[in-house]
# Entry
Amino acid sequence: MKHDSETLELTPLTSAPEEADTSAETGGSGARRRVDLLQLGFWVCLLLSIAAASVSLARPHASGATGSILLITMASGGLVFLLWTVRGAGRFIGLFPERGAAARIANAGAPRFPWIEALDEAVLITDPGGAPVAANGAYGELASIALISARSESGPVTVDRLFDATPGLAAPVYRLSKAAKAGTPRRELLPPVSIGPEQVPAQFEVSVSPLPRGRVLWRIRRIAGQLEATGASDLKSLYVEDAPMGFFAARPDGTITYANAYLRELLGLPESAKNIRLDDIMRPEFVKLLSRDKKSGAPGRADIHLRARNGVEMPVQAITTWSGKGVEAHGRTIILVNQQVMNGEEGRFSMQGASRPPRPDGDPMFDDAPFGAVRLDGDRVDGAIIMDANRALMELSAGRSTPGSRFAELFVTESEGEEALAQALVQAVDKPVALRVARPPSSSDDKEEQPVYANVFVTLNAAGRPSVAYVVDISEHRMLEQRLAHGEKMQAIGKIAGKIAHEINNMLQITMGNYEILTQRHPVGDPSFDNLKAINEATVRSRDLVRSLLAYAREQTFKREVFNATDFLTEFSILLRGVIDERITLDVSHGRDVPWIRADKSQLETAIINLVTNARDAMLSHRNGGKLQIRTSRVMASDAHARGFDYVEQGEYLLIEVEDNGSGVPKHLRGSIFQPFFTTKEKGSGTGLGLATVLGIIKQSGGYIDIASQTGKGTTFYIYLPALAASEIPQPAELVPAQLAEHRPMDLSGRGRILIVEDESGVRDIAVTLLRSRGYDVEEAMDGEEALEILTEKPGQFDLVISDVVMPGMNGPALIKEAKDKLGNARVIFMSGYAEQELAKQLDDRAVSFLPKPFSVRQLSELVKREIGSPRKEAA
# Structure
């Protein structure tokens, strides 16, 4: 009612100037209807004088001596009349001006709305299009403070430009502008702002009222701060009023002089409440608790209970400070509400979803919803304008969902184009549609902004126009889906890589076997020897590539040994110095009490060489040199957890750090570097299997690997390998038999009966031919079933069984299990490209030897000689 009365009082005042203009026009028309005798006499005399002068010119003898005088008089009068008509006042008031015309012309430069200067607030009058028409001096002063550039402009600026530097005022100014165009009065209380170059805090109340002829009256009234209530020395108290926490000021006698909006809403107190005491909102013991630090002046923290207007008490935490002495003292208390206080009572709000009490004119279900919500205005969804957006949507859109902007600008589609986006928004009516949220690009080169996805659901009103849209963040769900799909894809690639590698190994085995046979017929010096050597080099490169694939699939052959990492890396560093460039300094350092480990030395060498090679390339491309450091130490799992590698299981580990000062790896690429065929090098410079191979080797060794990098500073790889307990470390005497066992025999011929089981005929023929040439009695079988028949017919007659692992029908391990009673004391050798530990899982109770494919003729001969030549043991 207060707003209405002020509007009604404004009507006669604003219409007065228009009525004055109207009355002036009416008076003018009346004046034109009356005859002015004085003006008529003037013009009659002027015409008579002109006529007399004309007669004297025409008949000079009749005028006599006075003719020349009359002629001069006529010329002077004509000149004055000409100047008055062309360049004087006659140009504006005409030949026959009415009464008062000269006065009106003289006052034409005066302000059109002089009454606005009588108002003590800033006033602006605009036309129907929003362009400024007039403004009073107070508005000009406000514009000069808020906008420095406005001082140099000739006319007043619009209200939206006055506050466009503060994004928080866009919504209320938009609502006022809409009301002004609609011709309806409206009043808005703007949030506190800081204006001017000195950022002076202030708060304004803005109202719009219609004037005749489509003009609009804008009134901007500045609200004073609660200086007396809060004891604040400046207008910063305005921020206390709208702070997202409770605040009150009290005197020593317990009188509350001020309580902000949050606390009033929390306790259910009206804004006009007066004479409220601390005893009214809390128990006496809590009042004493707040006054305990009055003398010291230090901030005091206490857990108290506040009593609301309905008598319900709630636990809060109070922080109180006192200033002044005696009766002049002032206490100021901040109230922090426990998140478990609000329990859904009527008139309350949920603290889990609210940072402050709901606005008196707001809807808590809209403002504090945990998902984005927006009110729309428009005929179509793709062209709808945002009227209001809640906090969740503002955060989701990074502040882009401001009132007045287009709803469609918040999203982008995977297929670029406005038509595709418009169709997607139309499909979102009464049905959720997944869209990508448009966000500003990241300012950091080292960081790639993660895409944000949301389900958009639009509802229509009764007229079929878009009214409300809900935007639910599904980024985490989408990311989990992508990770699951990526994991399944990588698993499938690993399986395919293992199967392909097995088949390629068979073909490489045939190539290598035939190469060795042909080199015996075509030794060095033969014209064909160079061609055979080229075939062998290509075969070796193919073998290394297959091993990389198997390492990624974690199906490469492993020959685990127990060794000291310090000795291993010290010896291996000699080889590494030949791998890196002379412009790079290599520093290998070892910690104290470095643990022993169990791993495949050759595979671990491969992993370290791959890391060193990548580091070398990064340093040469970034600095044309650098420093490479390899460090070892004994650590616990807590060390890995402190570095952010929380997935490392509890235990003791050998830590190998490979650090370089090269170009580094950008943050958005670190999640992809261990993927197969991923490389940051130029095309043709790498296969993309280096780090994938390293990951497979470390994982198959039971360890972990991760990366820490800074762009432009360098990269460090951390390798954690399980440390062996003291009881697992072999004594020096135990190493002698193993070393003797590794001694390579010189005479590769021998005697014994051997059964070879291999489904690939090329591999089988080479092995049979070779062993027969060495003096062995060899029988062959093309699959497991045929081999089982031979063993059944000739039980216990074989000294050695050499079998492939993967064969159609009955595989190698199944054959050995089935023929367990028919083997006697025969030794078993498996040849395959699959991991040795996988065979151990299939044959729990029988010792077997393993020959990884592809193998050389000498490797096969040495292993057969060692197995048949060693003392026979009971296999079972």
About this structure: The chain has a mean pLDDT of 75. The CA atoms of residues 527 and 724 lie 54 Å apart. The longest helix spans residues 475-521.
